[in-house]
Amino acid sequence: MSGTGFELLTTDGSARRGRITTAHGVVETPAFMPVGTAATVKAMTPEAVASTGAQMILGNTYHLMLRPGAKRIEALGGLHRFMNWPGPILTDSGGFQVMSLAKLRKIEEKGVTFQSHIDGSRHSLTPETSVDIQRMLDADISMVLDECVALPADAKRLAASVELSMRWAERSKTAFVSRDGYGLFGIVQGGTRPDLRARSAQGLVALGFDGYAVGGLAVGEGQQAMFETLDVTVPHLPADRPRYLMGVGRPDDLVGAVARGIDMFDCVLPTRSGRTGQAFVRRGEVNIRNARHAEDPRPLDDACACPACRDYSRAYLHHLVKAGEILGAMLMTWHNIQYYQDLMAGMRAAIDAGTFAAFQKETTSRHAMGDIDPL
Hints:
By secondary structure, the chain is of the alpha/beta class. The chain contains 15 helices and 16 strands. The chain has two domains: 5-267, TIM Barrel (Alpha-Beta Barrel), CATH 3.20.20.105; 277-369, no CATH class. The chain is 42% helix and 20% strand. The longest helix is centred in the C-terminal third of the chain and has 28 residues, at 326-353.
């Protein structure tokens, strides 16, 4: 097998149950990847992340190339050994972070030059260097370099970006070193315009990649616009390759996207929210900072088996977060990742059983109910 493998096991409507095979293990889909920006899932040990059922995590090329450096990670045995995560890792190309974080960036045909947001040092990122950095990191799945355009943008600007990203994708593929268990994914762009999404998807499929990502969403366009964009994009993607929706999202976003044929997700939301006292539970969301939790002896979610719910009360979590204690961030993050992984496992089971539509209806209606009644 050259590249990563993908087996489509069953479908239920447009929802898909699959399996991705990589050099560092198997990923059952639909799957959610916790984000490990700087070679760590914030506030979590790798063992804790694995205990939630997470199979694959994401690392950020931009951050890792700046600190500690891809060559250093390579010399230390690659990202898996460096961060003690033996399972599969996907790395992004660095394009999104360059567009959103870097200072004084300049986009040209050859690539992008930018100043580091850390120390102002100058760097360049091309399709070739991005792919090579991801190889040095030993990423199981690498992403092509693309241009991420901030929305709203006019059709002319979006069209130019799609064409540039297509040329960069072809160069990324040429630069990618093919080997067993390692794959390269293309990224579909085009904003919310159906014609440009179709053009981007068809062009990438013609080039041929191990998987296809839908990028440029979850940037403020709203859930309905995102779903409508998926509706016009996914039909252009091959059934025998995994489909990855980048940077999404809230639990209802994940369920709705799986219903539209998406297999893979990543998002900082569960970890970032955990660090700020926000929890995702089966009846919506909880802001543990609220005074109503100060004397509440109940768990965050009585159906969750994570340590935060199993061993601690809302009152204690409220105290930790209000006091700024590190343990609060750790427990809240652990719960959120557990909840996301439980949600994905529930979707996989529902697709296997042919009951995904009922699962979707029940899950979204339960989220809409709101948190458990106050004492």
